[in-house]
Amino acid sequence: MSLPRRVRILGLSLIAVGSILAVTISNIGTAEAKPIDVVTTTSMIADAARQVAGDRAKVTALMGPGVDPHSYRQTRSDIVAMTRADLVLRHGLYLEAQLEDFFLDLEKRKNVVAVGEAIDPSLLLNFAGHEGRHDPHVWMDPQLWETVVLAVRDALINTDPEGEATYRANAQTHIADIKKLITYMKSVTKTVPEHSRVLLTAHDAFSYFGRGFDFSVMGIQGISTESEAGLRRVEELVNTIVDRNISAVFVESSVPERNVRALIEGAGARGQKVEIGGTLFSDAMGDPGTYEGTYIGMIDHNSTLITRALGGDAPATGMQGKLAAGS
Question: CA-CA-CA-CA torsion for 257, 259, 264, 267, nearest 10 degrees?
């Protein structure tokens, strides 16, 4: 028995209204789930934020591949990005030395978190010659970087409480991957002969790696690339190279290699043949979209390259077989 025309029309109208309401509610949900805007200083912090936030945040790093954070100065576009962001994540520990005054002012008005300063100060190394300051290169030891990941997680939760479950789950997954990296690093670095466990680089960025994995570490420049390498320092290191029969030194992706070249020439003049063991990622990761452009890939690259160059045993393509061959 067919329904009266007026009833049919009413029914169709209710269905149409229901569809409109459903679309409207869906759009509201989408608007509420709009990614938060996160700006970071270094690429390492940006990677941690992306790993933990997933789709809940749009993450922008101010400092890309090859950029030295010690000497970086904010641009006009950086200032705009940070003043508009929902959350600004910086490293702290005086890594971004030229931005310190800017951040002191920005923190009065914006949501700014220095995630590197979440680490227990008793676990930090001193910054020689600078009382009260610490070596900021904590990412070189993944055992310390886990704390930074948790600080990123907490900053995201405080900014976007509705995403807490997502942030906690993603952080747990990322830290599990970091623990696998630590296991790999311990396994391969211990194969380097004891007399060869000397890591000599352009600047003193690897002390946490040295402490964590039992290497002597020497930098031509100090902890900050703003310090100058004097002739006396180069001469001291040439003596060390000759005395300890060091056969490989390393350049860095974010530091000019002229001082390393001077070191090689000086050792050569003393009859000690020294080669460049490769390019390490020190203050910045690799190119975006590459494995080395992630924190895991950056540290995998470094530990694999150091191990192989100093006579240890590690697969050429690294922990997961993802490193560029021969990198």
Answer: -170
